[in-house]
Amino acid sequence: MTMSMRDYLEGISFKLQKIITPDLRPVYLLFEDVIREIVSNETAWLDLGCGHKLLAPWRKKEEIQLVENAGFVAGIDPNFDSLSQHATIHNRAQATVANLPFRDSTFDVVTANMVVEHLSKPEDQFREIYRILKPGGMFVFLTPNSKNPLVSLARLIPDSVKLRLVNLIEGRSESDVYPTYYHVNKRDDIRRIASDSGFEKADVTMSVTSPEFLIIPPLAFLELLCIRILMMRPFASYRSNIIAICRKSAGSS
User: Fold this and answer.
1) Measured between alpha carbons, how far is 28 from 133 in angstroms, rounded to an integer?
2) CATH assignment of the domain containing 217
3) What is the pLDDT of residues 126-184, one digit of tens each?
4) What is the mean pLDDT of the segment spanning 188-202?
5) Does residue 172 form part of some domain?
6) Domain residues for 210?
7) Which residues contact 3 (CB under 8 A, 6 or more apart)?
8) Which helix (H) or strand (E) holds 169?
9) Cα–Cα distance measured from residue 73 to residue 197, given in angstroms and rounded to the nearest whole number
10) Residue 139 is assigned to a structural domain of this protein
């Protein structure tokens, strides 16, 4: 698909969005807001699965500002090729969440943007995150809500088809797509696993975001109608995304 055609189709979907969900604030902006509030020039910050970017490609300026506002920033990712392309975070390491190459109580904040759905053993991996957090530190993450109808539907799609769709809709290559497990993608599961891992508290916010099918306006229209319904309070538990903040007790070692 040529960029001019893609831009034209996305333009139609954006016009529909202004009509159907005019007060919608995309979840990635809400996640940025959370990070901006807790990161300062005294913060030691680690981003899990940093890949080749911290935020969406069109948020490059905001990404640079976030990193510059922190005292120290590091990123880890299992994919070396992605790490080598990262231009914002300079302290990077090839590693997995299961084995973080840092000492105990190193970071004030650990973030994960669309990563925890890929954790195969979240209990163990949350404990590893807890270990490297300082007393009073926070683990902040954005992830899909597995109770959302579209997320549930996506889980039924074969991986071969899913890879093609991700490439078409998001422009991501096959090497940038990882297996998903959704072991920690419900409110109750997050609170249980966080508690079992040692965290004192887990604040969970259910959020909606922009439609995924921007290049297919008829599907975007139906998706926007669903989003409009999910923005109503009675349907909050079925919203598409979760922003969670897991807090380590200030008295922990």
Assistant:
1) 24
2) 3.40.50.150
3) 999 999 999 999 999 999 999 998 888 777 766 655 555 554 544 545 445 568 899 99
4) 97
5) yes
6) 3-247
7) none
8) helix 159-170
9) 24
10) yes
